[in-house]
Structure formats: structure tokens, C-alpha cells
Amino acid sequence: MLASGYVALRALNEVNQRKDEMVQLQRKIGAYRQLNRFGYDLDRLQFVAQDEKEIFENLRTDYEEFIRIVSQVITLIRQGRGDEGRELQFSEATPHSERLERLTNELVNKAEADMVVSVDASKETYATSRNAVAILAVASVAMALLLGYAISSSIVRPVQAMETRMQELADGDFHSKVDVPNRDELGVLAADLNRMSEQLGKAYRELEAVSRHKSEFLANMSHELRTPLNAIIGFSEVLKDGLLGQLAPKHEEYVTDIHTSGQHLLSLINEILDLSKIESGKMELDRSRFYLPATIEGTLTLVRERATRHGLKMNLSLDETLGEIDADERKVRQILLNLLSNAVKFTPDSGQISIAGAIANDAAQISVKDTGIGISPEDQETIFEEFRQVGNDREAKSEGTGLGLALARKLVELHGGLMWVESEIGQGTTFTFTLPLNAQSSVQAPNVDAVVTASGNAET
Ligand code: ADP
What we know:
single chain, alpha+beta, Helix Hairpins, Heat Shock Protein 90, 3 domains, six-stranded mixed beta sheet, two-stranded antiparallel ribbon, 8 strands, binds adenosine-5'-diphosphate
């Protein structure tokens, strides 16, 4: 832009000079044309015709000669020698006068020719300058575009690369690196990002190792604890059943306590063992094809006795489309039992528990609904974490371990299904889970509004 400004100014300057030249030439032509009409002012002419020295010298010589002859003619006429004077005039003055006129015309012609040359040169200067300015303007625009692209890509590209890297980090890839060669703040940021990703990867690997060790430790401990615990349960059962003789009432009470506590401890150990097996990826599903409605009904009978004792009504509503399924039957029972036990445990006497089942999106969808104490919205996700018990029912809490739902959800996920909860404090709770009909497929995240609800309830 500076260059085009410089060229434009130079062109303007040149045009200005040409204009001055032309004004000068115009004046010259005017002065030459006046020569014939108003006599020869040679001093002025000398100043005007500085560039045409030769013609001017000739003109001066001729003029002086002409003046001399004319003076002679006048002298002769005054002396009364008119004929001689006239002859001198015709023979010498007239040719000089004609020569003077010719020289004057020559001066005018030359000035006019100079004028034409100057006009042409001015035109040429204008055209050259115009082209130069146009070329420089196009070059400036091209350069601005090029620079703009270079600057924007030197910012946008690193930012995009870092965004992609962040996404990879969020997806758990701690190995890749982002390559930003910039030597500015973006380069520093990218280097920081790489360092952070490296440190995160290291921390993640350490966490994985710790978690694996924890699972292995729990699995080993649980295994070691189960053997003596089975002995405790077995022997207390023998004592309780009076196989070794009738016990005193106080002894029987204590032995029953030992037996109940042993059972509780065993279920806790079994759940811990199952969870740690899932976490360390060692839990395998023992898949088989079985009739799901029969499994649901069978599990229901396990809790019916306790439910009846509390005056709870139980509804079972299974859609006729629900049939055989490919899954681990023992684990499906375990999931159902956990949900049903909770429903019984957290529903006040004379409440209602409804079990519904249907097919939705290539999966069996089963829900256990109760009219119990309900779960507050902020607790609805934490209840699926290990050892989490919520609410104020101390007695019901002491009965449980806080592992049932964590285990149930993990078992459902192991089958490729999903588990979720809907609840309102004081109104009741509905737990729903899905099991894909096809062993390979996994279930899409559900639209909670589309949860299957019991229809045509059948009392059991
Ligand atoms: P727990 O062995 O204590 O029942 P769970 O993992 O099965 O452990 O449940 C975790 C907590 O979720 C329970 O302690 C209880 O506070 C809450 N909960 C589970 N099911 C229900 C339900 N049907 N109604 C109300 N609260 C429930």
C-alpha cells in the first residue's frame, strides 16, 4: 500500500510538471505569434526562447540587418533619393523581412511540436501510473488475503488440534500427543496439554492398578472368609435345630443370633465377591435359554411370605409377548430378588408392590414398583453406588448392606441392559431394567417417559 501510494504521488508530481511545461509552451506560442504583429522585442524574446538559441541568433542577426537596411532606406528617402531608397527596400529589406517571418513561424511550429510531445508524454505517464497503481492494488489485496489466511490458520489449526486432543482425553486416550509447532502462547498451551495428558495417564494407570489390587484383595479375602463362615452357619444351624439336644431358651436365642448374623455376613461377602469379580472383569455369564415369566414368578415366591406378613399386596402383570430369553438365569434371579427385597423392605405395611414385564426395543423390560417411602431426586443416582444407603429408615438400613443395587445394576449392564429408577418421596419407587433378547446386542439409553407400566394387573 505504501508502494502504491508512492507511485501515485510520483505520477501526480509528473503530471503537475507536464502541466507547468504546457503552460510555458502556451505562453511561448503566444509570445511568438505576437512577434509579427507588435514588432520584435528581442530582449523579451531572448528570455522566452532560451531553448531555441540557434533560431534566435539567426533571428537577431536578421533583425539587426533588417533595421540597418530600413534605416538606410529612410535616410535615402530623406535625402530625396526616393528611387534608390525604394530599390534598396525591394532588393534587401523585403527578403530580410520574409526571412524574419519564416524564422518566427519556425519558432511557433517548434513550440507547437513540443506541445504535442508534452501532451503525449503526459498521456503516457498517466497510463503507466494507472497500470502500476492497479497492479499494486491487486498485489496488496492478494497479499492481505494470503497473510489473513496464514494468520488465521496459525491460530485455528492448533485450536482445532487441541480440541480434538481434549475429546480424545475425555474418551480415555492418554497416549496420543498434540503437535503444535507454534512458538507463541498456543504452543505453550499445547505443551501444557501434552504434559497434563501424560500426568493424567500416569494417574489413571496407577488408579487402575490400585483398583485391580483392591478387587484381587477383596476376592481373596472374601474367599478366605467364606470357609470359616460356612462352618459357623452350619454348626449354629445344627445347634438351633436341636440336633445335639434341646437348648435352653437363652442359648437358643444366642445361637439364632449367631446364625442370622452369619447369614448376613455371608450375603455381604458374596456380594463383595461378585462386585470385585465384575470390576476385575472376571465375572462370566452362564448364559442359557429360559422362560423369563417362570423365573420372575419363581423369584416372587421367595419374598411373598415376608410381604404377606407385612400385609403387602403383590401384583404381577406380564405381557404375553414376554417369553424365552438368552441370559444367566441365576443372575437374573439375583437382580429381581434384590429389587423385590428392597421393595418389601422400604414399603410400609399394607402397601402394594407391582411387577410388570413386556418387550420393548428388542429387550425384555421389567419393572418393580412399590408404594413405599420413595427416594429423593438427589439420592436417585447415589443409591447405585457401593455401600450407599439413603433415607431415614434406620431399621431397614441395618438389614441391608448398601451393595444390592450396585450389584444389580452391574449385572444388568453385564447382560448389555440398563437399570434406572423413578421415585417420589412418600409416593413410591419404580426400578426398571432391561435385558436384550439377543445376547450380542446392548440396549439404547431409555426414554424414561416410555417406561413400560403395568396393565391388566393380575393379583398373585
Ligand atoms: P440395601 O442393602 O441397603 O438395600 P441397596 O443397594 O439395595 O442396599 O439399596 C441402597 C439404598 O437405596 C437403600 O439403603 C435405600 O435407602 C434405597 N432404596 C433401595 N430400594 C428402595 C426402595 N424400593 N424404596 C426406597 N428406597 C430404596
